[in-house]
Amino acid sequence: MQTIKEEITNEIIINKSKFITILSYVSNKEEVNNFLAKQKNIYKDATHYCYAYILESFEKYNDDGEPSGTAGSPILNVLKKQNLTNVICLVIRYFGGIKLGAGGLTRAYSNSASLALKKANISYLIDGYNITIMVPYDKQKTIDNLNLDIVNKSFTDKITYNFNISHSDYLNIKNIIDSYLIKKENIKIKTDKN
Question: Any idea what the Cα angle at residue 35 is, between residues 34 and 36, rounded to 5°?
C-alpha cells in the first residue's frame, strides 16, 4: 500500500473558478473530520468543499452541493488509480460566475486532484506498532541506542517512551523492550522502502 508523505496544496483557475486542492495523510476517521473542520475554517467563504478519502478498505466521497457524481467521485477515482490509502483529497472551489456543466466539473475536480498528486512524495505503508514503554533512568542509554522513531519521551520517576516501529524491527528488539512494555497498538508505518 502507498500513501503520501506530507500535506500538499495546489491551486488552479478554470473559467474564473478557483480550485484549491489539499492532500493529507490520515490514519482514521477522527483525523479526517479534524482535517475537514480545519480547512473549512481556513477557507470560510468557499462555495464547495468536495472531497474523497481512503482508509485501507474504507472509502468515501462527498460532492458538497455540486451535481451528483461530478466532484467527489472523480477525486476518489484519482486516488484509487494511484493505489493510495490513508489519504484525503479536498478540493475547495470558489465559484467564478461561469457554470462548467457536468463534464466540465468532472474534469476540473479530476484534474485538480491529479495535479496535486504530481507534487506529492509517495511512501509505502508497512505493518508496525505504536509502543509505549517505561524504563528506569539507568536503562535510558540502552533504549536511546536502539535509534527508535520516538514520538514522545517524558520524564517522571521513570522515563516513558512512545515510538513507532515496524513489525520486523520490533521482532529484532522484542527481548529488550517487552519487559518495559505498557502498551502496543497495531498501526501502519510510512517508509521509503517497499
Answer: 95
Q: Give CA–CA dist 71/14, Å, rounded.
A: 14
Q: Which of 94, 114, 111 is nearest to 103 (CA)?
A: 111
Cα-to-chain-centroid distance, residue 146? 27
pLDDT means over runs of 10, the chain (194 residues): 93 96 96 98 97 95 96 97 96 94 96 96 91 95 91 95 93 92 90 69
CA–CA separation, 50 and 30 (whole Å): 18
Q: In CATH, what class is 126-191? A: alpha beta
**pLDDT of res. 158:** 96
CB 35 within 8 A of CB 8: no
Q: Where are the domains of the chain?
A: 2-120, 126-191
Amino acid 66: pLDDT: 96
2-120 CATH: 3.30.230.30
Q: What is the rounded CA–CA span in Å between residue 190 and residue 122?
A: 9
Using DSSP, how many helices (H) and how many strands (E) does the chain show? 5, 10
